[in-house]
Design a protein that fits this description.
mainly alpha, two-stranded antiparallel ribbon, 169 residues, globular
Length: 169
């Protein structure tokens, strides 16, 4: 399993291409990363059956950013908090060594170069246990959306509510 958007580009170029992604992670990646356009969204929406509108970050011009506190509070108020862990995992913002390492960012790779010895093993074990617990919450979110696919549209609504237009000046 991976959280990289490179393979999803094929969806915008070929309606029969297989990205290798399951529905939920593809949804999160396409919603969160601005490289995708409305055509790619519509093709993925048809392929995966999300029945969800494209997020404003795709339909509106200009740079956007997500207000994470708004996202957390809104998800919590709607009993959807497990989705926050899923958003954090895709954004590489969990604070966990194993989940936040991004092979596409050199600074992130520095965290990979940890000498393995008697002093670092306890820290690595602890980080792995934390990663597993975060992953377990992600699995809960994925199970929720499999049970109720209407959550795709609801998540877009919440995402749009917490999306802010970046000041470009």
């Amino acid at each position: 399993f991976r959280f990289s958007h490179d393979d999803l580009y094929e969806l915008g170029e070929c309606d029969k291409c297989d990205s290798g992604f399951d529905s939920f992670p593809a949804f999160l990646i396409m919603m969160m990363y601005t490289q995708f356009d409305e055509v790619s969204w519509m093709m993925a929406n048809d392929k995966y059956g999300w029945n969800a509108p494209a997020p404003r970050s795709i339909t509106e011009d200009g740079p956007h950013y997500i207000e994470w506190e708004c996202l957390s509070e809104t998800l919590h108020s709607q009993d959807l908090l497990p989705f926050y862990a899923a958003f954090e995992m895709v954004a590489h913002q969990t604070g966990n060594l194993f989940l936040d390492t991004n092979l596409y960012e050199e600074m992130s790779l520095d965290e990979l170069y940890i000498e393995i010895n008697a002093e670092t093993i306890p820290m690595l074990v602890s980080e792995w246990e934390i990663a597993r617990s975060i992953w377990d919450v992600y699995d809960i979110a994925e199970g929720m959306i499999e049970q109720d696919p209407g959550l795709y549209a609801q998540l877009i609504e919440i995402w749009n509510q917490c999306l802010r237009k970046a000041d470009t000046e």
